[in-house]
Structures are given as structure tokens and as C-alpha cells.
Design brief:
- With 507 residues, this protein is an alpha/beta fold.
- The chain has 2 domains: 17-270 and 469-491, Aldehyde Dehydrogenase, Chain A, domain 1, CATH 3.40.605.10; 275-455, Aldehyde Dehydrogenase, Chain A, domain 2 (3-Layer(aba) Sandwich).
- The chain has 15 helices and 27 strands.
- A 7-stranded mixed sheet has the order 18-20-21-16-15-23-24, sandwiched between helices. A 6-stranded mixed sheet has the order 12-11-10-13-14-26, sandwiched between helices. A 3-stranded mixed sheet has the order 3-7-6, with no helix packed on it.
- α9 (284-296) links the parallel β15 and β16 (308-312).
- α9 (284-296) packs across α10.
- The structure holds nicotinamide-adenine-dinucleotide (NAD).
- Residues 167-171, 176, 194, 196-197, 226-228, 231-232, 235, 246-248, 251, 254-255, 269-272, 303, 401, 403, 429, 469, 474 line the site of nicotinamide-adenine-dinucleotide.
Length: 507
């Protein structure tokens, strides 16, 4: 691919954290173990693209063992029956441990994923917060009771469901694992986690954190491996009634099909191509800051990236000029250097995919910044923050999720056109709206096809709100009480108070 000469770089050096494991195992029933058949896969770091470890490659028999342990811990162990406060104490200890290991977690995450170190640090704190949040929620949780005067009292008996299968992607792996682990465990389920094969390093830290916090053996099980092997076996296992999946839309479709035989509960957080809509009355400088962060943070490898920027014609050229100038200034390079704003993409396969979209973009839009590998970074998975303007709505870079530091900018003439452009993709995860006009903001929010909308902001989460997408971006919502609902059964218990009128058949 061509190189980009106008990118600001910090040179990469191959920083390797101390005491790195050379082999990553499963964790089943309180013990670190290898695959029964001894299978392994190689794990590389995205700066050198050299293998630094092998990981146990879980097969069906390994998933069977993990599910059996989780099933036993659910059926006969203390966890599902504990009082919420007792479980919450353990969840808070987990949060303390995650926080205490922040620096170590951050360096491992940055080493394994290529995310800039300043952004990995935030991930550990967010992971801890997820545990604290659900600890609070289960203690405060109460359920409905309904009275039919003189006839019935009915109440909801909320119960954990069983073994939850958790399948997670490689972008911000530890934080996204916490997003599923915390509510699944808080509600009394037991779990089998299958982390992404590109980034198994940080997931192995959970085992010790959980053990030290007092989580009973068998409640948390971890099986590493490829999606088509370990992930597939988990999805098809008859003793796993729930699958919570975050990943690509096409993988979600496969999982949906494979879960049908056992009619599993499914929660799916899938891909996105979210619009960032900037009206002429917006605070332009704030919009530029936010739209840059919204797509170039986390190396652009974020599901909620505002990767299509739609700008009202009156400010279009000014916006493009300011945006491109800043994109050229973004510091790309060594993920461990605190100056770095965009690090290395996770894996050479993903790098090749993003690089191919950069080339496609050159015939679909006007290249304003980036456009290839930054000069000065000849190796590693680096791509310069790349900005295309004048991108037509039928362009591939407008329609398809790139999941890298690449953005498409398109002009619009009026509110109707902005809305129709915003909705013109198969995805519907997030939307970002920039305007000072409240009526317009509310009307646009009502009509935009997105699971989540932010007004005059990038993605700032409130953990109580529903998280999820519509259309090809997902199925169901997690977040706050929605997560509690997904991981529990709400059994209706009907208590008869009076005489029940019963037709006397056969009398
Ligand atoms: P992916 O779909 O390739 O893999 C995700 C996980 O699924 C991995 O653990 C993988 O091993 C497993 N998997 C793959 N095939 C499987 C199969 N047949 N059966 C069971 N499991 C299988 O996704 P990725 O490349 O790791 O992650 C990037 C994608 O995730 C992007 O599309 C991004 O938008 C999406 N994502 C969405 C959200 C959200 O909340 N909506 C958050 C983060 C990432």
C-alpha cells in the first residue's frame, strides 16, 4: 500500500512487558489447564507481528468440561443461592482488584491489542466500574407484586438461568468481558467465557482476580480458542441456555442459526457504521474535536465509531478543512508511548482489511488526510488517520464497517436529506447529532434508526441506559436493568386468595 507522508509519528520500539506468559491456558473448575487434546494456537503482538505466546485451543471436549463445571456450580454450588449482598461483596472485591492492577492490565492490553496506553488505562477503570455498578444494582433490586383484590396476589420470582456462554471480540477485550461477566455473575449465573483469539492475554487475569475475591470454583470458566471451534461448541451446547455475543454482524447471524436448535436466549451487540451529523448551527470547534475522537480513538476499532460524518453544506468546506488539518496532526505510533493517539491495529489480517478499504476509498472520495502507512513506521500494523470527503451514499466506504482509523465525510442540504443519509445503511448502532436547535435535535433523535443517540457529544456512557443497536447492529439491549432481565428468568407466581370459578367439566 502507499505511504502517508503527512502523518505525525512517534517511532515504535518493541516494548515487551515483564513476566509475560509464553503459554496461555484455559481455566476450568478453579484450575489452569491445557486442551484435552493438547491443541494450541499462536498469539502475536501487533507492533512486531511476532508470536509471543501460544494459547490452548479449546475444542468441543474442552467446552464440555467447562460447561460441566459451570453446570455443577450452578446446580449444587452456593453462588446462585447467595444473598445479593454476599454476592455484591465479592463483586466489589473484584472491582478493587481490577483497579489495583490498573497499570499491569493496561500494559498487557496495550501490548496485545495495540491500543494506545492512555486509552488502555481507562479500560481497566471502566471494567471495575461495571462490577461496582451491578453490585449496587442487585442489592437495590426488587420485583413486582400485583394484587387482584379478593382474588389473587401475584409476584415475580426472579431466578438466575444457568450457564451463560459469553463470547467477546478483541477491541477493548478486558472491558467488554467485564460488561458481560459482571451482570451474568451478579444475577447468580455461572459462566463460560470464550475471549477473542487475537487477544487472549488480559482475559487470563480474571481467573486469579476471581479466585482471590472468593468466587467459588466452577462459577467462572474460561476457554480460549478459535470462534469456529471453541465458540461454535459453546453456542451449540445443550446445557448453555444463554449466549451473550459481541462481534461482527455476520458472526452474529451464524450464532443465531446455530442457537436455534436449542432455542437459546440471545443478546447480540454487532457492527456499526454510525452517523455523526453536524448542522450549520453547531458549535463547530466542539463538533470537530468530538468527531475526531469519535472515530480515531481506540484506533478506530470501536463499534460505536462515528465513521460517517454528515455535514450541512453551509459549513461543509470549513468543517472538512479543519477536520483534515487536525487528523494530520494525530500522533500515530508506539502504543506504549503516552504521546500516541492512534496505535497499531490488532492483527495483520485486520490491517490488510483496513488497508484495502483505504485503497477502495481513493476511488470513492476525495482524500484529505492519511491514505496509507505512515512514513517512519515501516513495520507493525499502522495506518495513518485517513479522511475522505465527498463520499456518495452508495460507496462501499459509506456502507461497510471498516473498524479502523478511516472516516467518510458527506455533505447534506437540509434536515430531510440528513436523516435519509443517516438511515441509509444496514446498521443502526449509534448516532451523534450536533446542533443548537433543540426541536431539531429531538425530532432527529426520534427518527434516526439507531439504538443510541448522543446530542452534542461523542459516546459518553451512562451505565443505567440501554446499550444496543437496531437493524444489523444487534438484537436486544443490555445495560442497567436490561442486563438483569437478560440474565434472569422472571417467573410469575399466582397465589389464589378467594374461591376460583372452575367450570365443572364432565360433572
Ligand atoms: P468476530 O465476530 O470475528 O469475533 C467475535 C467473537 O466471536 C470472537 O471471540 C470469535 O472467536 C467468536 N466467533 C467467531 N466465529 C464464531 C462462531 N462461528 N461461533 C461462535 N463464536 C464465534 O468479531 P471481532 O472481529 O472480534 O470484533 C469486531 C466486531 O465486533 C466489529 O464488527 C464491531 O463492530 C463489533 N463490536 C460490537 C460492539 C457492540 O457493542 N455493538 C462492541 C465491540 C465490537
Amino acid at each position: 500500500m502507499t505511504s502517508s507522508t503527512d502523518t505525525t509519528v512517534v517511532p515504535a520500539h518493541h516494548y515487551v512487558p515483564e513476566n509475560l506468559p509464553t503459554h496461555i491456558q484455559h481455566y476450568i473448575n478453579g484450575k489452569f489447564v491445557d486442551s484435552v487434546g493438547g491443541a494450541t494456537f499462536d498469539v502475536l503482538d501487533p507492533v512486531s507481528n511476532e508470536n509471543y505466546a501460544t494459547a490452548a485451543a479449546g475444542q468441543k471436549e474442552d467446552i464440555d468440561l467447562a460447561v460441566a463445571a459451570a453446570r455443577e456450580a450452578f446446580a449444587n454450588g452456593p453462588w446462585p443461592k447467595m444473598k445479593p449482598r454476599e454476592r455484591a461483596r465479592i463483586l466489589n472485591r473484584i472491582a478493587d482488584a481490577v483497579e489495583a492492577q490498573e497499570a499491569r492490565l493496561a500494559e498487557l492490553e496495550t501490548f496485545d491489542t495495540g491500543l494506545p496506553i492512555t486509552q488502555s488505562r481507562g479500560q481497566a477503570l471502566r471494567a471495575a466500574e461495571n462490577f461496582r455498578f451491578f453490585a449496587d444494582l442487585i442489592v437495590a433490586q426488587f420485583d413486582d407484586a400485583m394484587k387482584v383484590p379478593g382474588a389473587q396476589i401475584n409476584y415475580v420470582n426472579r431466578k438466575p438461568i444457568g450457564v451463560a456462554g459469553l463470547i467477546t471480540p478483541w477491541n477493548t477485550p478486558f472491558m467488554l468481558e467485564s460488561w458481560k461477566l459482571a451482570p451474568a455473575l451478579a444475577t447468580g449465573n455461572t459462566v463460560v467465557l470464550k475471549p477473542a483469539e487475537f487477544t487472549p492475554l488480559s482475559a487470563s487475569l480474571w481467573a486469579q482476580i476471581f479466585k482471590d475475591a472468593g468466587l467459588p470454583d466452577g462459577v467462572f470458566n474460561l476457554v480460549n480458542g478459535l470462534g469456529e471451534e471453541a465458540g461454535d461448541a459453546l453456542v451449540k451446547h445443550p446445557d448453555v441456555p444463554l449466549i451473550s455475543f459481541t462481534g461482527e454482524t455476520t458472526t452474529g447471524q451464524t450464532i443465531f442459526r446455530n442457537a436455534a436448535a436449542n432455542l437459546k436466549g440471545l443478546s447480540m451487540e454487532l457492527g456499526g457504521k454510525s452517523p455523526c451529523v453536524v448542522f450549520a448551527d453547531a458549535d463547530l470547534d466542539a463538533a470537530v474535536d468530538s468527531a475526531l475522537f469519535g472515530v480515531f480513538s481506540l484506533n478506530g476499532e470501536r463499534c460505536t465509531a462515528g465513521s460517517r460524518i454528515l455535514v450541512e453544506r453551509a459549513i461543509y468546506e470549513e468543517f472538512c478543512e479543519k477536520y483534515a488539518a487536525r487528523a494530520k496532526n494525530i500522533v500515530v505510533g508506539d502504543p506504549h508511548d503516552p504521546k500516541t493517539e492512534v496505535g497499531a491495529l490488532v492483527h495483520p489480517e485486520h490491517f490488510a482489511k483496513v488497508a484495502s478499504y483505504v485503497e477502495i476509498g481513493k476511488s470513492e472520495g476525495r482524500l484529505l488526510a492519511g491514505g496509507g502507512r505512515p512514513k517512519g513506521l515501516p513495520t507493525g500494523n499502522y495506518i495513518a488517520p485517513t479522511v475522505f470527503a465527498d463520499v456518495a451514499p452508495d460507496a462501499r466506504i459509506f456502507q461497510e464497517e471498516i473498524f479502523g482509523p478511516v472516516v467518510a465525510i458527506t455533505p447534506f442540504e437540509n434536515d430531510d436529506e440528513a436523516l435519509s443519509l443517516a438511515n441509509n445503511t444496514r446498521y443502526g448502532l449509534a448516532a451523534y447529532i450536533w446542533t443548537q436547535d433543540l426541536t431539531r435535535a429531538h425530532n432527529f433523535s426520534q427518527n434516526v434508526e439507531a439504538g443510541m443517540v448522543w446530542l452534542n457529544s461523542h459516546n459518553v456512557r451512562d451505565l443505567r441506559t440501554p446499550f444496543g443497536g437496531v437493524k444489523a447492529s444487534g438484537l436486544g439491549h443490555e445495560g442497567g436493568y436490561r442486563s438483569i432481565d437478560f440474565y434472569t428468568d422472571q417467573q410469575a407466581v399466582h397465589i389464589t386468595l378467594g374461591t376460583v370459578h372452575t367450570p365443572k367439566f364432565g360433572a
